[in-house]
Write a structure and sequence with these properties.
CATH class: Alpha Beta
CATH architecture: 2-Layer Sandwich
Low-confidence stretches: none
Radius of gyration: 15 Å
CATH topology: Alpha-Beta Plaits
Helix content: 25-40%
Number of helices: 5
Strand order of the largest sheet: 2-3-1-4
Number of strands: 4
Largest sheet: 4 strands, antiparallel
Shape: globular
Structural class: alpha+beta
Strand content: 15-25%
């Protein structure tokens, strides 16, 4: 399946390595609204998951560990998501992730194509992440390296 007419869904999970209510976590917590506001205004943005209070970083999810937070969104194209991730304020927060979040030994980021208008569920997203973990990059679930036409991730990603 190609992404020519499809939208791109993404899920990112992270596990706190510090108390999210601590002073050390405040730079991240204060940045969430700004980062999400930039996403909401970004070209190609379609939708993002929010909990009942409107927070895009959710702890109400199908993962058993309550230290895990999830972020999920849908974009019109891989290029639109790539631009947002690597060319906005999001990049600065991403570069600081090791201050707040544990290194995860399994896949923690996944993308997949969805029909325009489809809003993915967290259960669907978990299935995609589990698929990526079990099978590597496929057309069902993939990372940046599965999209040869987007390249910013190669020079920007953290180790």
């Amino acid at each position: 399946m190609t992404g020519a007419r499809m939208h791109l869904a993404e899920l990112n999970i992270a596990e706190w390595k510090i108390d999210p209510n601590s002073l050390r976590a405040q730079p991240f917590m204060r940045a969430i609204d700004k980062v999400n506001a930039v996403a909401d205004r970004s070209p190609g943005f379609v939708w993002r998951h929010q909990d009942e209070s409107g927070n895009a970083i959710s702890t109400d999810h199908p993962w058993s560990d309550q230290n895990v937070i999830v972020n999920m969104s849908v974009w019109e194209s891989a290029e639109a998501l790539e631009h947002y991730v690597w060319n906005t304020v999001h990049r600065a927060i991403y570069r600081r992730k090791d201050e707040w979040f544990a290194h995860m030994r399994m896949a923690h980021f996944v993308m997949w194509w969805v029909e325009p208008g489809h809003i993915p569920t967290l259960d669907e997203a978990k299935e995609r992440l589990d698929h990526l973990h079990a099978h590597g990059n496929t057309d069902t679930a993939f990372g940046w390296e599965h999209l040869p036409h987007v390249k910013l991730w190669q020079s920007q990603q953290c180790g």
